[in-house]
Design brief:
Elements (H helix, E strand, L loop, with lengths): L6 E9 L2 E10 L2 E7 L31 E4 L2 H7 L3 E4 L4 E2 L4 E2 L5 H4 L9
Antiparallel strand pairs: 1-2, 2-3, 4-5, 6-7
């Protein structure tokens, strides 16, 4: 499904027994990483915090913190040939560009993640 094309799929992910609203990056039948949302929409019609937890970034440290290891479910690992993937805030660099994601509320906050990238 992801042969020669980057796919970024939105889905809930449980990491260390905490539910996160995430973007799963995949290419060439491999998961590149899982990126949880930092800012959740929680006003008006939106109540993301009923279901999800925002990813915590320590404000006393530079950048977005360390990437953690996410252990894939056995079924997914059998398909991808991977046991674990990076989990956290990241960007992917290629020869001619750099890619990262922001979702919904992250674009509208005064401290949007792209400012630090």
């Amino acid at each position: 499904v992801t042969d020669a094309i980057r796919c970024i799929i939105g889905m809930p992910v449980m990491h260390r027994n905490v539910p996160y609203n995430c973007r799963v990056w995949a290419v060439n039948r491999k998961i590149v990483g899982i990126r949880p949302k930092i800012y959740l929409a929680n006003d008006g019609n939106y109540r993301e915090m009923r279901w999800f937890t925002p990813w915590y970034i320590d404000p006393s440290k530079q950048g977005f913190g360390e990437l953690e290891e996410y252990f894939l479910p056995r079924e997914i690992g059998e398909i991808t040939g991977q046991a674990k993937v990076p989990f956290g805030i990241f960007a992917v660099s290629t020869k001619d560009t750099c890619l990262a994601t922001e979702t919904c509320e992250e674009l509208f906050t005064p401290d949007a993640p792209h400012i630090k990238l």
